[in-house]
Amino acid sequence: MSVVPGQAKQKPLPQEIVQKTPPVVYYAPECSGTHLLEVRDPGAVSDVEYLRQYKAGTATPSVRGRATEDLGFGIFDRDPVPGLPGVKITLTGNGADRSTVTDASGYYVFANTPAGAYRVTPSLRTYSSPWKVRDVGVPPGGCGAADFDMIGSGSIEGSLLDAVARPAATVRVDVLRLNHDGKPVYYAVKRAKTDGSGRFQVAQLPSGDFRLGVNLFDPPDPETPYMPTQWSDDGSLSIHLSPGEHKRVSPLRLPPRLAVRKVEAEVRWPDGQAAKGVDVWGEVGGQAAAHGETNAEGIARIEVLEGARYSIEAKTWVGPAGQREVARSGAAELVPGQLPIHLKLVLTGRTKDYQ
User: Fold this and answer.
1) Architecture in CATH of 260-351
2) Does the global pTM surpass 0.70?
3) Number of C-beta neighbours around residue 36 at 10 A
4) CATH class of the domain whose range is 154-253
């Protein structure tokens, strides 16, 4: 086990494991493994202290863990994982009936817990957990672990108006989760569609700050043909929710609807032959917004939006397995207008990556 960067020593195998004939399945208790410790991780200090006690032979059996706040709502590799304070954690079993609350970073610990079997239950008003209860075993001299992800019950609701102030029905609305710096968390988006009256509600939101709008996460497309539009109120672009809060915001007005146009792309190989079965992609802001596949004549037809800026490229995999490459045309920049569009694309480029 290594707790510092650098050369790590190989962990010894349990006595009953024979390396040449390992079992099909082997279960290791949670606290017998290792994980990467980062300086910004609030649990790093207690983890290192536990390792010191374990090495010194002074560690006592315990149950420990952490409560997080909707960990599935975004990817937090670049941001601190949102721990949830104030969650009541109850430990029962083996003659025990104890409770504690999570600290400011969502951690808890039941120290001096005798070896045995226990049940751990989380509780916090306005939150629920997919794990209603967890069974935990505590080995002699070791610890049991039980983490809980808590899902909030907050919501944001409002109404959407079109460019002439009429209710906008069946339009997709985005809510983005923001980090402590006020920037969107990676892939943290929840959506709802407006009803016939232009009303919407995005539910099951945790506490924190959010951004609301249309096409904030996805590029404009024929289904939602509007340039990105963000809700604001007196200059404020974010909406704050307290735990379990249901907030109604002022109406959001959309810009004019973009007209749908068609692009005909003619794709050929360098020798002039028609390229059949080739993907033609239209990207807006680096995101795929339109797609078509060429027919036997090398023609693909895709739908685009008038006034949006597109990058159009044809590409396809070529070559035998193990030596595959991507034949590509290179990007053609395009802002569709009212006139018909015909593009000629030639697959002169080669790359290893499809992107």
Assistant:
1) Sandwich (2.60)
2) yes
3) 7
4) mainly beta
